[in-house]
Amino acid sequence: MMYIDVVKCEGESNTIFNAMGNPFNSLQRKGKDTIFNFENNEQSQSDEELSQIDEDLTAKCINQEPPSKKPRFKELPSKEEIEKLALARTEPRTNQQTVWGVKLLRGWLTENKYSSSFEELDETILNDRLCYFYASLQTKQGTDYSKSALVGIRSAISRHITGPPYNREINIITDKLFMPSNHVITGMMKKIEKEGKDITVHKKAVAEGDIKKLYSSGIFSTDPSNSPK
């Protein structure tokens, strides 16, 4: 199909027809310009809307309170809680023995007109008190304590004054300042042993035949297949 394109030359009134021209070329060019302008307008509007959304979000973020930060550590414990944790280093049975030994010393101090508070006494005075305390010890029945009981009483007092809240840096068992009181308690144990008054009861040793039975039964075996059913 042949198209005729009408072209007006500048300065002339004549119209030149181009037999090979396309009458839609100018329309297509105008259409492209129109679409380009439309897209530009749409793009401009989109940018404005996105910019407004960004501003709104930024304003919300600025005005919003930041989330509370979770503490890294536990709440600061009280002094009582600290002391309980320190006491937890030993078994409950040991703590009971500590209370028992300290109670004996306080009772002796009160009975002999001394202050029952001994925890912060000067080392020399404390050693002197312990010398007389050890030598005066006896059970409620009036008998001598066993060697293990004497050692337990001394250890109880030591744990008490070196633990919280006193935390004294002394050792009534090994320090040279407490050698006199330790000599007293050692002499008492020797005396009890010589007089045959040591009431410490030791369990009988397991007979050799019984030990063999325990091994043969699988109780002492490390092999799971030999464990008793």
What does this structure look like?
InterPro entries: MAVS. It is a single chain. This protein is mostly helical. The protein has a domain of 116 residues. The chain is 54% helix and 3% strand. It contains seven helices and two strands, in the order ββααααααα. The protein has a two-stranded antiparallel sheet. Strand 1 and strand 2 form a beta hairpin. Helix 3 crosses helix 5 and helix 4 packs parallel to helix 6. The protein is elongated, with a radius of gyration of 50 Å. The N terminus is likely disordered.
> Which structural category fits the helices and strands?
mainly alpha
**Can you tell me the overall shape?**
elongated
Secondary-structure element series? EEHHHHHHH
The total beta strand count reads: 2
- For the biggest β-sheet, the strand order reads 1-2
Number of helices: 7
Descriptive tags:
single chain, 229 residues, mainly alpha, two-stranded antiparallel sheet, 3% strand, MAVS
Task: Indicate the topology.
Blueprint: E1 5-8, E2 15-18, H1 25-63, H2 79-87, H3 92-111, H4 123-136, H5 147-162, H6 179-194, H7 208-217
Antiparallel strand pairs: 1-2
InterPro entries: MAVS
A few lines on this structure:
The chain has 229 residues and is mainly α. The protein has seven helices and two strands.
